[in-house]
Design a protein that fits this description.
The structure is a homodimer.
Chain A (H helix, E strand, L loop, with lengths): L7 E4 L10 H10 L4 E4 L6 H17 L4 E4 L2 H6 L4 E4 L6 H8 L4 E6 L2 H9 L4 E5 L19 H9 L4 E4 L8 H5 L4 E4 L1 H4 L4 H15 L1
Helix pairs in contact in A: 1-2, 1-9
Amino acid sequence: MNLTGWRTYLVTQSDRSAGRDTEEIVEAAIDGGVDAVQLREKGRSARDRYELGCRLREVTAAAEVPLLVNDRIDLAAAIDADGVHLGQSDLPIEIARERLGSDAIVGCSTSTVAEAEAAEAAGADYLGVGAVYGTASKDVPAEKNGIGTEPVATIADAVEIPVFGIGGITADNVRPVIEAGATGAAVISAITAADDPAAATAALDEVIADAR
Amino acid sequence: MNLTGWRTYLVTQSDRSAGRDTEEIVEAAIDGGVDAVQLREKGRSARDRYELGCRLREVTAAAEVPLLVNDRIDLAAAIDADGVHLGQSDLPIEIARERLGSDAIVGCSTSTVAEAEAAEAAGADYLGVGAVYGTASKDVPAEKNGIGTEPVATIADAVEIPVFGIGGITADNVRPVIEAGATGAAVISAITAADDPAAATAALDEVIADAR
């Protein structure tokens, strides 16, 4: 699966969406030109994620925008998502490939060259690298909260598959991430918490396109 | 899948196993005559559960004891488990059946007749009902912490599939659960925290057999 056309990748998190419905945010991001959407929603039950995922599948399918699911292969299959995004402590990439098939998009979070090379060898279609600028999304140890653009460059050099920067990225700070070699950026708050999520998506997308 | 032969059903939780390996507990429970094992391990990563699950699959397959997985259909498939046990906020039973096939064992946690009837209609093979005596396993609201044997009786009357009591059950208090109509008991601490898990399994099994 060639994902080099992806620039702006929205990761959903309802509790960071300023009280708005996640469907509404996703629709706005689609209007703004988003290239892919990931159902994240940490802290919510599998049933809640499934029900939201079914609704997001309708919205994204109508717009022909790929929908991925964070962590869970079964949930990805249940909502007929296009793929799954796995962290280092999730099920192995090989299992996702086996369960979801060769056409599925399988992404993997990595923060070192060793992790990145292992993920590529295991069949990942893309890598998420971060947290680039630090993020409020996870409780991460201080030393991992904001790795900067240097590891993005090192990892992008080490692998053939696209690399997406993640963590604290906005239209204002995305340029060095792309210049370091990232194909695009995965964001939560830069879109979900924006006053105008469509405009925020378009702004991010424009800077990424320009910086390439 | 007819599970009326199951009496004693071990649910694993490594942090309640007095520092012993879960494989060791499962092997002892098999020696004591356990009828089924569920990989639970709440709070551990999917990767950790997968690695432990692969080891438990070897131990249980060698003894021809069914192995189920709590919550996750993908993990059940990944370790070639015999089935999955779903809670009310997990993915729907129909999804598990679709993904794991007609031979898979699908169980469901229920605490009301409405939930029990819905689970049976959706294709569950058995029900877990509780917490019968209250349990240290979950943070449950006070009013649900210890529903007693009355709901076990009501639910066992309402459905055809086997009902297993769960929550605070030991060899000393299992008799009224079986007399209320439960087929058997699902336990964590009564086996995992016992000085002699094999003897504890055998003791529980003997009371259940006698009370039927």
